[in-house]
Amino acid sequence: MPSERREFYRASNGDSWHLCRDANHMAVVVHEPNEASGGQSSVIELSTFLNPDNQGPEHQALRTLIGTLVYP
């Protein structure tokens, strides 16, 4: 599991999403579901997470974060 992490979204149910670097230093998203959902973390490739079909609040939060890096 990546050690460098930046949380960019936390849902009201306790799920959280983090922008991280994997072992190859590539940016990935780590989803940590709440314990009631099983609590099993998953690593998602950045391009998969940012697919235009994904429009959830966690996806919008990452797009907003990326936008702040481009337009401070």
Report the mean per-residue pLDDT as an integer: 91
State the shape.
Answer: globular
- Unreliably modeled segments: none
Largest sheet: 4 strands, antiparallel
Structural class: alpha+beta
Beta-sheet strand percentage? 25-35%
Q: Please report the number of helical segments.
A: 2
The neighbouring-strand order within the major sheet is 1-2-3-4
Distance between the termini: 30 Å
Total count of domains: 1
CA-atom Rg in angstroms: 12 Å
The beta-strand count equals 4
- N-to-C order of helices and strands: EEEEHH
Helical content band = 25-40%
Essential attributes:
four-stranded antiparallel beta sheet, 2 helices
Tell me briefly what this model is:
This protein is an alpha+beta fold. The protein contains 2 helices and 4 strands, in the order ββββαα.
